[in-house]
Amino acid sequence: MAEDNKxxxxxxxxxxxxEQKKRTKINPLKDVYPPLPxxxxxxxxADPPWDYGGKMQYDKTTIKSENKDFxxxxxxxxxxxxxxxxxxxxxxxxxxxxxTAEDCLLFMWTTGPQMANAIELGxxxxxxxxxxxxxxxxxxxxxxxxxxxxxxxxxxxKHGRFPQPRGARNVRxxxxxxxxxxxxxxxxxxxxxxxxxxxxxxxxxxxxNNYVGWDNWGLEIPDEKxxxxxxxxxxxxxxxxxNLDFQxxxxxxxxxRFDLKASLNIExxxx
Length: 271
What we know:
Layout: H1 12-23, H2 29-32, E1 41-46, H3 88-92, E2 100-110, H4 115-124, E3 128-142, E4 149-159, E5 174-176, H5 187-196, E6 202-205, E7 215-217, H6 231-241, H7 249-264
Parallel strand pairs: 1-2, 1-6, 3-5, 6-7
Antiparallel strand pairs: 2-4, 3-4
């Protein structure tokens, strides 16, 4: 039977841990991710696959056919159930300096628990930490050790001088939008960065999208290029084209009242 290393007590976790070690492996970074492009960029946007107490481990019993470039396998943390997570040491091995232009900004996603690691990683990649560029209020909270967590952050780092020319100067720091699928970030952030730096060479690291105007690097990049469109822009476009198949809560209430009046032939004064 399996015993807990600290207490000597047999637990379900200790049994799972032993079985997991038999089935898992730690792959070097170069064996999982493709090489970085041979190009210099003035803007780098990164969403590192932070490790939360685990390793870049895969359960070799759960290979899925849709994963072409790597074997997505189960590990303990919720993040690693979705994609291979990387320890800080492994993230530092990524040769970001090789794609960094003389004057370059790095925008990096992080959570509260990973804030110090994100700053350390930015420095390891050759950047100086400057400020919090974006704060994402996910509108729902998660359990937290200290307070209930509901925000993520995009830190801004600088290498050399500020890239020129500068575009929009009215992009807001706060992004308030409901959390979607695991680790999917609001389009409003990359849209804001694009508006601030419309002419610079830009790349998204650990990307899951293939946006027009951006190069990208990662494991889950679709083949087809798409335009960057925020939720507000998509809604406006659908309304203008007459293809909007949903209504806001207020619109639904008004429509329901109208339908009720029509069906009952009730005067407006009663409503």
